[in-house]
Amino acid sequence: MADTPQTPGNPAAGRPxxxxxxxxxxxxxxMTSITHRITGVGLSLGILILAWWLIAIxxxxxxxxxxxxxxxxxxxxxxxxxxxxxLGYHLLSGLRHLAWDLGYGFDKKLSERNSVLIFGLSFxxxxxxxxxxxxxxxxxxx
Amino acid sequence: xxxxxxxLRRTRNLGASHSGTGHFWRERITAAALVxxxxxxxxxxxxxxxxxxxxxxxxxxxxxxxxxxxxFVLTALYHAALGLxxxxxxxxHTAGSKILLFLLVRISVIAAGSVSLFALLRIAAF
Lengths: 142, 126
Fold this sequence. Notes:
The complex is a heterodimer of chains A (142) and B (126).
Chain A: H1 28-58, H2 61-71, H3 74-101, H4 108-134
Helix pairs in contact in A: 1-2, 1-3, 1-4, 3-4
Chain B: H1 7-12, H2 22-48, H3 53-61, H4 63-91, H5 95-124
């Protein structure tokens, strides 16, 4: 009676189990898939900051200063960098999803390469935005 | 195998999934719309970064900019609600928590949308 009960799904039962996600080597496409979802959730929260930004502007100088007092700090800038990267990533990866929906880009080698490309480009987009601001090339609407 | 429901009726509305392909299709339509809207948004935010509140007010008070910003916020919120619903569907398996989270998402989306539109109206009237 000390034997483990022979229930389905019990590893001790000696039956083959459906392979778990953890035993796979993570291919680039798996990374891009979960990252697309994570950046999507992150951007959903980012819209709340956008709503705050709009309200802050509508409040005039006080609102504008209050917004900058929070966002122009190391944690605030980190959040903004995260949003910039997530937007770049979700946009690029989203374009690939639309291409997939049309039936393009399913080749194994190609989708592996595109995954690496999307990761690289998304960081370039985020870094590019921050470099433009820091080198004084932003703010052109003034 | 016979059913009182005709295949067309099932495809149009209430199949096994309750809603057919409507959710999938709306997610794609909003995604496609968000491609140009996001590019405009990046142009706008980069152009306003490091300026001042007067510049931001003048820019967002212009009708086309106000409309594009409203379109971007509302489309992004709709797309977010559709996406978050899929995430909840995938990871939350108890009916109670699921309904609660759906409600939370919908209320947040309506709140964020109302706040943004109100702010844009206020800026336009500035």
